[in-house]
Design brief:
6-stranded mixed sheet; Immunoglobulin-like; single chain; 25% helix; alpha+beta; 4-stranded antiparallel sheet; 5 helices
């Protein structure tokens, strides 16, 4: 994934922003999701109170991160280490059984999730607060500037009716909420909300494709009937 390789998502100017911590969700209308956590190990330690080896020249043990993010609701499918700005990062890809229960897991317990249907729309909310027990950890001087960013990004599966981000919808139906890493470490609340159609973009595309195919077949059959009638 290009965003992982560059360590963040695209900014409004088209350049790549670099996030120190990022949750990137590919949501499905049935409540399942694919979730990526792209983070420096130092930021993960600071935000979660963990003690993963974050030394610049250390070796990244994929299995310890696989074990940390594996829960009854999340199933890790890939762990990819990389480096940036003299710091070690890790990208963890996982499948989520039910986004509404993700807050029950230890790695994501700082969020409360809802995903409900209201008529012909689905409403997604995520209230991000402090880590349980305020387990913020002092990781020392790791090269942060004070302008470092945390982000929560979501790839919405259907037409977006409303969102409360402070930016436009990105290419590919992407919403992004950003926060200073210092604010995230202090547990400053962040509220995410998006409302979307109850039919996915893929479903609409398949319906359109099927309709066009049926129209072409009907026109073809009409031409054959006309040719045969004229020949007779």
């Amino acid at each position: 994934m290009a965003a992982v390789a560059c360590g963040g998502g695209r900014s409004g100017s088209g350049l790549f922003k670099q996030y120190e911590y990022e949750e990137e969700m590919y949501l499905s209308l049935d409540g399942t999701a694919t979730l990526y956590v792209n983070t420096s190990i130092a930021a993960l330690n600071a935000l979660r109170g963990t003690s993963f080896d974050a030394t610049p020249n250390g070796r990244t043990d994929r299995e310890v991160f696989r074990a940390y993010f594996t829960t009854p609701q999340t199933h890790v499918t890939r762990v990819s280490p990389y480096r940036r700005s003299g710091r070690r990062f890790v990208s963890v890809r996982m499948d989520v059984d039910d986004i509404r229960r993700l807050g029950e897991t230890a790695p994501f317990a700082w969020s409360k999730y809802t995903f409900t249907r209201a008529g012909d729309t689905f409403v997604y909310t995520q209230a991000v607060g402090a880590a349980p027990g305020n387990n913020v950890k002092d990781v020392g001087a790791v090269g942060w500037t004070g302008r470092d960013l945390a982000a929560f990004r979501m790839h919405v599966p259907s037409k977006i009716r409303f969102h409360n981000t402070k930016a436009d919808v990105g290419r590919g139906n992407i919403l992004a909420w950003e926060q200073l890493l210092t604010d995230r470490m202090r547990g400053v609340p962040l509220s995410l909300e998006a409302r979307m159609d109850a039919q996915s973009i893929l479903y609409r595309a398949l319906i359109l494709f099927g309709s066009m195919a049926a129209l072409v077949a009907f026109a073809f059959a009409l031409v054959i009937w006309w040719v045969r009638r004229k020949g007779t």
